[in-house]
């Protein structure tokens, strides 16, 4: 096979382009600017008085190109649909030709089979077997031809559907183009009208601004002067001084009210002493949450407290209802959050005689404890550093730091990564302040996780101990469980 190559190296004749002499001199260093006029005549642009600048020519040609691009896009769309219609017509024509050829093939196969049948009767032996095999092959070809015809019919139906779809798409495209053109014309008209209205409004604004400019400046100066006068009258520094004075007065009033309440309690205490005469015992301590109350003798003839029977009660200030505090049988009792707003009473029995001591008034709440608890409630799990002092009623010698988790569903006590106890809120769980414990009673808490497992833990401060009690009772209440204190049989801190 011969390979044909193109070589233009020697086809150009050197004499076709004559060389230019180096002595030739041109009048200008740029190509002359000509313009083709009528009858293809060259006209010098310098003679034309209407010569456009380069900027105007570029702007005009850019606008023409954009418009031409829009027209070309519509034309391309129409040409694509026309090509699709032509392809559909071509496919339809090919399908028709295939159908005609298929009919001719059926006729030929039928004639061939008839000829073989007639030949079969004339031959015998091996030739007859060959004829029968040929007949089978012809029948198989007929079956294949029939299958092919079915496929052609299906293709023809699909081609018809495609042609109808392309035709409908072409019509829809034409409608869309017409609608877009109409919409564009309407938008152009609306834009022109809007531009005209804006121009009229600007002209009107210029006329009115020229007339009212001086008047506006005078009014603005008057407003500025009035604002300065108002600012001078208000004097914000005086207002701040008044607010500071009011804050100081509120603070002094709160201190006076606390002092007045303290004096009232001392007065009530002195009245009880006068009424009871020579009373052997008295209550000592601050009657508020976060402190502790102690029973102490006030005369030399007072019996020893170790030989007396003691029981503490809560008394409602309204109805005088008395409620026994289970396990509170020691000379020291630290009020817990449940005692706030109630009067505490201690009954001392010695040799058949009973002495009753009560607080001067209801137990006062701890300052800021409510807001502290509300801030802790927003957390999912609250942790407190504690020290375990007793476990199952037996003193715990170790003073290592443990962590008490008070959660929304359970309470957990752990040391490092080791869990000591973890129990969900239940009716068998008990939690309250320690009913005894000496001077540290206000910082200690009794927790019975379940029957047979109890702890006495000490917190870093009275505030944390009371917050832990309030949080645990609140979360348990959300679980429809009331956490109570221990009964008389439960082990207590001493």
What does this structure look like?
This protein is α+β, with helices and mostly antiparallel strands. Among the domains are: 85-200, ATP synthase delta/epsilon subunit, C-terminal domain (Single alpha-helices involved in coiled-coils or other helix-helix interfaces), CATH 1.20.5; 287-358, Immunoglobulin-like (Sandwich), CATH 2.60.40; 369-479, PH-domain like. The chain has five helices and 17 strands. It has helices at residues 54-120, 126-234, 236-276, 369-377, 462-478, and strands at 34-36, 42-44, 281-284, 293-297, 309-315, 322-324, 332-333, 343-350, 353-358, 381-391, 394-395, 401-407, 410-415, 418-424, 430-433, 444-450, 453-459. Strands 10, 11, 12, 13, 14, 15, 16 and 17 form an eight-stranded antiparallel beta sheet that branches. It has a four-stranded antiparallel beta sheet with strand order 6-5-8-9, with no helix packed on it.
Summarize this entry quickly:
Residues 159-259 form a coiled coil. The chain is α+β, with helices and mostly antiparallel strands.
Show the helix and strand layout.
Layout: E1 34-36, E2 42-44, H1 54-120, H2 126-234, H3 236-276, E3 281-284, E4 293-297, E5 309-315, E6 322-324, E7 332-333, E8 343-350, E9 353-358, H4 369-377, E10 381-391, E11 394-395, E12 401-407, E13 410-415, E14 418-424, E15 430-433, E16 444-450, E17 453-459, H5 462-478
Antiparallel strand pairs: 1-2, 3-4, 4-7, 5-6, 5-8, 8-9, 10-11, 10-12, 10-17, 12-13, 13-14, 15-16, 16-17
Helix pairs in contact: 1-2, 4-5
């Amino acid at each position: 096979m011969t390979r044909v190559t193109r070589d233009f190296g020697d086809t150009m004749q050197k004499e076709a382009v004559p060389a230019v002499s180096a002595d030739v001199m041109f009048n200008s260093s740029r190509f002359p600017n000509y313009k083709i006029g009528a009858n293809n005549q060259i006209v010098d642009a310098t003679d034309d008085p209407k010569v456009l600048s380069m900027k105007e020519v570029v702007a005009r040609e850019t606008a023409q190109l954009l418009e031409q691009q829009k027209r070309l896009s519509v034309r391309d769309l129409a040409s694509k649909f026309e090509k699709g219609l032509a392809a559909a017509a071509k496919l339809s024509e090919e399908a028709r030709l295939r159908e005609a050829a298929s009919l001719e093939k059926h006729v030929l196969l039928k004639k061939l089979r008839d000829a073989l049948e007639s030949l079969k009767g004339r031959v015998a032996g091996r030739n007859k077997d060959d004829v029968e095999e040929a007949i089978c092959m012809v029948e198989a070809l007929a079956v294949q031809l029939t299958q092919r015809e079915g496929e052609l019919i299906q293709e023809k139906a699909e081609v018809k559907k495609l042609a109808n779809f392309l035709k409908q798409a072409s019509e829809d495209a034409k409608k869309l183009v017409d609608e877009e053109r109409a919409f564009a014309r309407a938008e152009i008209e609306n834009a022109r009208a809007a531009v005209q209205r804006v121009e009229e409004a600007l002209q009107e604004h210029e006329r009115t601004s020229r007339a009212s400019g001086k008047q506006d400046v005078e009014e603005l100066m008057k407003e500025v002067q009035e604002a300065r006068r108002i600012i001078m009258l208000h004097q914000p520094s005086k207002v701040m001084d008044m607010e500071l004075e009011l804050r100081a007065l509120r603070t002094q009033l709160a201190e006076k009210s606390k002092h007045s309440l303290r004096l009232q309690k001392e007065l009530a205490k002195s009245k009880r002493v006068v009424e009871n005469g020579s009373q052997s015992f008295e209550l000592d301590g601050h009657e508020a949450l976060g402190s502790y109350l102690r029973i102490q003798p006030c005369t030399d003839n007072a019996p020893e407290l170790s030989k007396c029977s003691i029981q503490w009660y809560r008394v409602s200030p309204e109805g005088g209802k008395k409620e026994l505090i289970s396990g509170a049988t020691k000379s020291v009792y630290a009020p817990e959050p449940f005692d706030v707003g109630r009067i505490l009473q201690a009954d001392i029995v010695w040799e058949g005689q009973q002495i009753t001591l009560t607080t001067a008034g209801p137990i006062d709440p701890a300052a800021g404890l409510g807001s502290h608890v509300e801030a802790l409630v927003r957390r999912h799990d609250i942790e407190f550093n504690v020290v375990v002092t007793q476990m199952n009623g037996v003193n715990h010698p170790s003073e290592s730091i443990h962590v008490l988790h008070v959660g929304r569903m359970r309470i957990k006590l752990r040391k490092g990564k080791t869990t000591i106890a973890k129990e969900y809120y239940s009716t068998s769980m008990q939690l309250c302040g320690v009913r005894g414990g000496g001077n540290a009673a206000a910082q200690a808490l009794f927790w019975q996780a379940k029957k047979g497992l109890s702890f006495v833990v000490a917190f870093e401060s009275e505030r944390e101990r009371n917050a832990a009690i309030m949080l645990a009772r609140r979360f348990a209440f959300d679980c429809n469980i009331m956490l109570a204190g221990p009964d008389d049989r439960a082990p207590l801190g001493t």
